[in-house]
Structures are given as C-alpha cells and as structure tokens.
C-alpha cells in the first residue's frame, strides 16, 4: 500500500498514520518528524529547518525532496509507505512523481482528511511532544499519565513552538494556499478518497477503513 495523507495540521494525520502502520506493516514517513529529529540532533539540516518551522512556514522544496529521496532508498520502503505531511506543495508532488517513475512505483491512494478550523486550533493547542523521543500526546484525547513527563521515556513534554496560537493561524493559511491545491492535482489522477477527521480517533479510523475498502 502506497498512500499519501493530506489534511490541515492537527487533523489527525500522524495519529491515523500510526494505526495504519500497525495494520499494513509499512513505515510512516513523516517529513515533520524527520525534521524535528534533525533539530533534536542539531544537524545542519535541523538548523536550517528550525527557522522556517518556528514561523509556521514551509521548509524549501529542494530540502524536503532530498530528504525523501534518501528515505525512499531504504529497504523498508519497498512494499509501501504512508506519507504523512509530504507532499505539501505542487513542486513536491511533481518531484515525488518523478522519483516514483524512476523507481517504478505507483501511488495507490491519497486520503484527504478534513476538519473545521476551530476544532484544529483546539486540538493543536492541547498537543504536547516529548523533547527526548518525539512521542506525541494530546491533553484532550490521549493525555500522558503524569503531566509534563513522557510515558515512554520519562523525557520532558513541551508545546511545539509551531503549536502556539499565532503560528497555528499561519500554518492553516499556508495549508490553504500551498497544500490544498494538491487535492485537484491528485483528483486528476483519480486517487482521492475523502475522510471526515472531526470524530474520535476510532471514529476517524473507521472512516478510513471504509474509504480504503
Ligand atoms: P508537521 O509535523 O507535518 O505538522 O510539520 C511541521 C513543520 O515542518 C511544518 O509546519 C513545516 O515547517 C515543516 N514541514 C514538514 N513537512 C514539510 C514538507 N513536506 N514541506 C515543507 N515543510 C515541511
């Protein structure tokens, strides 16, 4: 299964991707997670990405495409993958197309998840992430056992700079301007299936299961 998840920040792409990983035994490829891991390890790429991310802006397409090319060359991507947060612009989608042609692969489906902006702001404001291992919690839906401490590794939980209210608005604007046009791009290839992202984690999961039937 080779799948793209498209949707505004906070719609639940990462959460649902993790459930799909268990079901299909294929990796989740989240460019946001890859960039945050580079920031944690203070790599050159991390330092470059940080300024864009903290402002709620997109990291340049060539940087993202280089990162994806390297990731796709790893053995675990052969049978399939869930692309979460990539592509995010038309040039990234075109770059992905070229790469897939070159390695003889085809996408199976592009899932579009939707939710209204009020719900997205509510969810993102309640999101907490672990500084050490990157695990993600939501104070509303999946709270940690003890506030501020990661259940998995004991690391400190923090609110991402880009999950603060001013940056969230920016990210939603960026989504509408730069990412939403991908829906038409993939509609032309007949790959789009739409899923309502407004319910609970299991309700949305059920919607995805039906959309993939
Ligand atoms: P995410 O975790 O997917 O919400 O991504 C967090 C931030 O990382 C975004 O707001 C962007 O600054 C950056 N980012 C992640 N994926 C991409 C991408 N495909 N293209 C450009 N920037 C990205």
What does this entry look like structurally?
The protein is 47% helix and 15% strand. It has a domain at 2-115 and 177-211: Rossmann fold. The chain is globular and about 45 Å long. The chain is of the alpha/beta class. Helix 2 (31-40) packs across helix 3 (44-54), helix 4 packs parallel to helix 5 and helix 6 crosses helix 7 (165-179). The mean pLDDT is 95. Strands 2-3-1-4-8 form a 5-stranded parallel beta sheet, with helices on both faces. Strand 5 and strand 6 form a beta hairpin. The protein has helices at 13-24, 31-40, 44-54, 61-72, 90-103, 117-125, 165-179, 181-187, 201-211, and strands at 2-6, 28-30, 81-84, 109-114, 127-130, 136-138, 157-158, 192-196. The protein binds adenosine monophosphate (AMP). Residues 9, 31-32, 35, 52-53, 56-59, 64, 85-86, 88, 92, 162, 171 line the site of adenosine monophosphate (AMP). Residues 9, 31-32, 35, 52-53, 56-59, 64, 85-86, 88, 92, 162, 171 line the site of adenosine monophosphate.
């Amino acid at each position: 299964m080779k799948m793209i998840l498209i949707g505004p920040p906070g719609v639940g792409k990462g959460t649902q991707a993790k459930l799909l990983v268990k079901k299909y035994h294929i990796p989740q490829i989240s460019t946001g997670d890859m960039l945050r891991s580079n920031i944690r390890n203070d790599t050159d790429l991390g330092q470059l990405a940080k300024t864009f991310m903290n402002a709620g802006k997109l990291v340049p397409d060539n940087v993202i495409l280089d990162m994806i090319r390297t990731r796709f060359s790893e053995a675990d991507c052969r049978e399939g993958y869930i692309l979460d947060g990539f592509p995010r612009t038309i040039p990234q989608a075109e770059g992905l197309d070229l790469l897939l042609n070159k390695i003889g692969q085809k996408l199976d489906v592009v899932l579009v998840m939707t939710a209204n902006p009020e719900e997205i702001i509510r969810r993102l404001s309640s999101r907490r992430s672990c500084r050490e291992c990157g695990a993600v919690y939501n104070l509303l839906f999946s709270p940690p056992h003890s506030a501020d401490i990661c259940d998995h590794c004991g690391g400190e939980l923090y609110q991402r700079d880009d999950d603060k209210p001013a940056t969230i608005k920016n990210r939603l604007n960026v989504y509408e301007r730069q990412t939403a046009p991908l829906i038409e791009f993939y509609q032309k290839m007949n790959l789009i299936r739409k899923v309502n992202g407004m319910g609970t984690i299991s309700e949305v999961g059920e919607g995805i299961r039906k959309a993939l039937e």
